[in-house]
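Much of what follows relies on a compact textual record of a protein's fold. A record is reproduced here so that you can trace the correspondence yourselves:
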Amino acid sequence: MQKVQLASSQVISQVMMNGKNLNQVLENALNVKPAWTASERGAIQDICYGTLRFYGQLKAILDLLLHKPLEEQHIGYLLLVTLYQLQHTKATQHTIVDQAVSAARTIQPHVGGLVNAILRSFLRQQNELLDKVAAKREARFNHPLWWITELNAQYGQEVGATILDVGNQHPPMTLRVNQHCGTTLEYQALLAEQGMKAERIAPDALLLEKPVNVDRLPGFADGWVSVQDAGAQYAAKLLDLKWGMRVLDACSAPGGKTAHMLEAVDVDMVAVDKDAKRLRRVEDNLARLQLRAQLIVGDAAKPQDWWNGKLFDRILADVPCSASGVVRRHPDIKWLRRRDDIDSFAQQQLEILQALWPLLKPDGKLLYATCSVFKQENEQVVTKFLAGHRDVQRVALTQPEHSAGQLLPDAQHDGFFYALLHKTA
């Protein structure tokens, strides 16, 4: 356990001190030592995600326990992951504490006694400490104060609180069934034969009762099924694709929506992404599903650098955003984002919309999409775009039902926004 605690604290410190992406840091940490067992790898991942998921509460508790700032910041992160373990894992408390003390001494030899005292103090005062920090909004909701304030202003305190609470839960695992290989109900029955329960929540979507490794999914390697959130699966349906259309997925990586469109209808697909490494993930996903698309490394905001001049019937603009609708999958995001980032994203999103619009045929349709719940990136961007163009009409969405395009995260899907724009001339 000591090795697991040390590795986890090092990951958290890189994320919080250096602003690095959790998935990337975690992948690097797990690959540095191939001798990690499966259980150790799982424990490190759980501790890292859990610590960031409840970082607001854990940090508030630690602040109450400390009488003065720690000399070594890494000890603070070790204490945070240990506090997470004491509250949210099944390991015995004395083992967690003893191993944390040993781990601390490998970082700073003389600090073991302090770490032991802090953790023992937490165990004695746990209920009292939890009550105290519950009065602090960052600790209660485990999101930055600016994020809490923004959601409350936009949606009201009741809805805002619900969005925040959902953002701290474990995400659902949803499958998209490749209809070329069989129906959704057929695959649901196949899962049942393997002892996996799943609920059909959309035409192509199955929500697993319990997440599993993709290696356990029947036919995954042969392209029978993919992992994709139910909210993300709306995109292919909303675009109203027809056979033979020329279609652009302008920010395509990692390729889930690209593949879903190709599974739905035989179209001439062009998939663009400015990150060559991420575009290779699109290539890998399409190869597994035995689908084809023209893949281009390019910036959606600068189509003059990669576009051949041939207009598109449909465009998906799944633009870069704050990812505020998917924080339960990426808990580092809420602590790394700043309020000013939202305005920067909104400006970038409008620039992409402006750049892509000339690539659309008259009578064509463009679907603007984000995985954000902030209105600055969603409704406000679309409103600005509509105000600047006479050749566009917004199409009313029949799906997602009663959402006006804004899908808030819940037990079945993440948070997304969709706006379908029709080119009228």
